[in-house]
Amino acid sequence: MRSFTDRVSEIDISGIRKMFEAAGTDSINLGLGEPDVPTPAHVCDAAMDAIREGHTRYTPGAGIIELRSALSEKFLRDNNISVSPDEIMVTSGASEALHISLQALVEPGDDVLVPDPGFVSYTALSRIAGGRAVSVPLSNLRLDPDIVAEQITRNTKVLIVNSPSNPCGTVQSRKEIQALAELAEDHDFTIISDEVYEFFIYKGEHVSPAEFTDNVVTVNAASKTYAMTGWRLGYLAARPEYIEQFHKVHQYVQACANSVAQIAALAAITGPQERVAEMRDMFKKRRDILLSGLREMGVECMTPAGAFYVFPRVGDGDRTAANMAERGVITVPGSAFGTYGAEHVRMSYATGEAEIVRALDRMHEGF
To answer: What's the start-to-end Cα distance of the chain, in Å?
Structure first.
């Protein structure tokens, strides 16, 4: 019998992917975190022009200079972070940015502090890197700096922060982010800050840890902001000593991000931004419809301040997700996001209002 490494064979397929693939043809999918709107037309036009003009070859490993320069301006404008184009790397989605960061930072036996519940990739990628994923239980679905401090040991190498959060939809405060950055400084570990939902905030503000410390890798993508999930275009920013090591992994894993997607992302970031605000307003309206329906059923659910997920407490998340699936509504059991998510399910409202209303009708008898 063929033998595979423990670090891979012990990892299960994502609970999100399992539910998606089990969906029936008439199912309403509240499981996937993907905007249901098309990529903006001017972005698609830029990509088609790039193909016609022959921009279909390898690019520099870090990405085309035009895009990295635009991202440098974006970080200063939107995140109050001063980084040069040479401190930015363009990747194949935020997923690759997370992967290469952990590969370069984590040795076997190192601890990676992971929010629990937290996005499914964090624990899996930490294990693939040879590290030990240490669950940090959330407080009111937020990462509490005092609880994080209790988990820090001499083996702590990385803390993953995700605000706005997937699956919880919570937004960390400026005070919390600054406190986490101070912990990174005091204990000399690196924060990997996943900021892919930064523009979808309904209450509070987006704050980047890189405002307060250089011990941080800021990860982002065009995927959610510009409805470009399938384009697989992400990026990261970090100080030169990080970038130097990340290049070594990136060049062998990927060589460079997709050339056409880079041109498209450049058009997205430098072009009109009104669509982003429209999407945020649309998601907020959908959030309120879904929350209202759930609460009418007596379901306990915090009001998400960002992203496009609700994370209601339902008692037994696995059983509830199975019941919902039988009624033709796909949700994700909270256990997919960590031990402390087991009493929840995640529902995405990145789908149409009519679908959300239909889903609520089907759910009515499932709780």
So the answer is: 44
At 92, is the secondary structure helix, strand, or coil? coil
The position carrying tokens 């000593």 is: 241
Q: At what angle do helices 93-105 and 240-253 cross, to 10 degrees?
A: 110
Dist. CA 343–CA 355, nearest whole Å: 25
> What gap in Å lies between CA 243 and CA 194, rounded to an integer?
17
The CATH code for residues 41-270 is: 3.40.640.10
Closest Cα partner for 91 from 219, 229, 196, 234?
234
DSSP helix/strand/coil, 273: coil
User: What are the residue boundaries of the structural domains of the chain, listed by start?
Assistant: 6-39+274-363, 41-270
219, 194 Cβ separation under 8 angstroms:
yes
pLDDT at 8: 82
Identify the H or E element spanning 349.
Answer: none
19-33, 103-117, 153-167, 318-332: least confident range: 19-33
Q: Which fold has domain 6-39+274-363?
A: Aspartate Aminotransferase, domain 1 (3.90.1150)
Alpha helices per DSSP H over 254-352:
259-270, 274-296, 317-326
